[in-house]
Amino acid sequence: MKGKAGAANAPAPADFAVSAIRIYATAAVAAAILATSPARAASGDPARGEQIYQRCIACHSLERNRTGPKHCGLFGRRAGSVPGYAYSRAMAKSGIIWDEKSLDRFLANPLTALPGTKMGYAGIRDAQERADLIAWLRSATRDPKKCPAGANGGDQPHR
User: Fold this and answer.
1) 42 vs 104: CA distance, rounded Å
2) Quick check: 39 and 109 in contact, CB under 8 A?
3) Tens of pLDDT along 49-97?
């Protein structure tokens, strides 16, 4: 009798198969979500980012101010602090410290991220392209050949 009672409590093979399918389906959905999430995009490709930066050079440069401020010294710098550049009031008062997260948010849509900014650019909607650009900016602004000492500007040390 004891053996029969234990067997009655065990899941039927069909129930086990349905449970296994549900687990695998849930895992597959989770993997698909993670594969397309911004967290995945956070690992950018600097080589692709350098190509994307070509869109920026009409207004920006690493080592000097143009229509937009220079990018040397960007990471860790308070927004609106490069000497000699006339920022919008919104940017100067924003309190933003530039890092991967703040750049990603701003570059997605500058006009929405910071109403009143002078950067009249629609933004980079593709999260992977933003991650690539940010990876290149991080790399380029650390390169002493591209950003020599004294080219950093702003009120924060070059990082």
Assistant:
1) 9
2) no
3) 999 999 999 999 999 999 999 999 999 999 999 999 999 999 999 999 9
Q: What distance in Å separates the CA atoms of residue 108 and residue 119, rounded to the nearest whole number?
A: 12
Q: Which of 128, 106, 127, 102 is nearest to 117 (CA)?
A: 106
Assigned token pair, 20? 């296994």
Question: What Cα–Cα distance (Å) separates residue 39 from each residue in 31, 33, 36, 82, 104?
Answer: 12, 10, 8, 30, 11
99-105, long-range: CB within 8 Å, 24+ apart, which pairs?
99/75, 100/42, 100/134, 100/138, 103/74, 103/130, 103/134, 103/137, 104/38, 104/130, 104/131, 104/134
pTM to 2 decimal places: 0.70
Judged by DSSP in three states, 9 sits in: helix
Question: Which DSSP symbol is given to 77?
Answer: P
Query: 117: closest CA among 85, 95, 94?
Result: 94
